[in-house]
Specification:
Layout: H1 3-7, H2 11-18, E1 24-26, H3 38-46, E2 55-59, E3 62-63, E4 70-75, E5 78-84, H4 86-96, E6 99-102, H5 110-123, E7 126-134, E8 144-145, E9 149-156, E10 158-163, E11 175-176, E12 186-191, E13 195-198, E14 204-208, E15 214-222, H6 226-236, H7 250-270, H8 273-285
Antiparallel strand pairs: 1-13, 2-3, 2-6, 4-5, 6-7, 7-15, 8-11, 9-13, 9-15, 10-12, 10-14
């Protein structure tokens, strides 16, 4: 069973009726609850290697100051700040009902990385992973919109989700929703092994049940926006690297300008809107540094 099938029950139903249209709760036969378990989170906290900004502790009202849960340590004779103090994090979760957020887990947990890579192949878009540990009876964030489609996998505990309507047009911003979001399109309790789909931009909020903490993995499926398209287009029509960088006189500068225009026209003549979207999604998916899979002893 592939990564997509472990999140989405029926591919045709999902893309025909839910993708970018409506929130839905799914109950796959083999949900990916094993990718990052509660025990795994505890081990990561106790490893001493967790470091900001991969870790954030928040209250519903905002982020907890890092100095309350981070410490400095001496590494190779130099003091390095930003290492997570596991006891301090657990104290904040237990005593102040703070939420623990592990960012971009796909970058530093091998199994999660492989899973997100497979999801990215299915969606043809960049996919990232985040882990949330929310204490019992706590809402991690107020109603907000994400600039991504979200597949939320409930790993442990119970969480009540409310999902509201999406933005009215393309001129929306991600973040907290100041206005009344109206009646929810979906008001559902998510239990371990269930997966919630939230379309891109649909307002939502979630709270852990009163009697147990919640752990869930969010797979965010990033979509290109106009700034992404513009950046890729500029890269495609950039001046030929063979041209002189700093022409020495007016004649050579005008000649270079002529070649730049000719090159841009050639690119634009051959470029379709569909191709630009494809190139942009491909660029967004590319990692700045692909991990190697050789042993350190090789």
């Amino acid at each position: 069973m592939n990564a997509f099938e472990r999140c989405v029950v029926d591919r045709d139903t999902f893309f025909a009726g839910q993708w970018r249209k409506a929130p839905a709760v799914m109950r796959p036969a083999n949900p990916p609850v094993d990718l990052l378990t509660v025990a795994d989170v505890d081990r990561l906290l106790d490893s001493g290697l967790l470091h900001v900004p991969y870790v954030e502790v928040t209250h519903e009202s905002g982020a907890v100051p890092r100095e309350r849960y981070c410490t400095a340590r001496e590494v190779a004779g130099t003091m390095a700040a930003g290492y997570v103090d596991a006891d301090a994090v657990r104290h904040l979760i237990r005593e102040e009902h703070a939420t623990l957020l592990l960012r971009h887990v796909d970058q530093w947990v091998a199994g999660v990385r492989a899973f997100t890579d497979e999801l990215a192949e299915h969606f043809g878009r960049k996919v990232e992973a985040f882990c949330f540990v929310t204490p019992a009876g706590t809402q991690g964030r107020p109603v907000h919109r994400d600039d991504a489609d979200v597949l939320a996998v409930q790993v442990s505990g119970v969480k009540r989700w409310k999902v509201y309507s999406g933005p009215a047009d393309g001129n929306w911003e991600p973040g907290l929703v100041a206005e009344d979001p109206g009646e929810p399109l979906l008001d559902s309790v998510l239990r371990a092994g269930e997966v919630l789909y939230v379309p891109r931009g649909f307002a939502h909020a979630a709270a852990a049940a009163e009697d147990a903490s919640s752990v869930h993995l969010s797979f965010t499926i990033r979509e290109a926006g106009t700034p992404n398209l513009d950046a890729v287009l500029q890269a495609l029509v950039a001046a030929d690297a063979r041209l002189p960088v700093r022409p020495l006189d007016e004649e050579s500068l005008v000649r270079a300008a002529s070649e730049v225009i000719a090159g841009a026209r050639k690119v634009l003549e051959d470029l379709t809107p569909e191709a630009l979207v494809h190139y942009t999604r491909t660029v967004m998916r590319a990692r700045s540094a692909e991990p190697t899979h050789t042993s350190i002893a090789d």
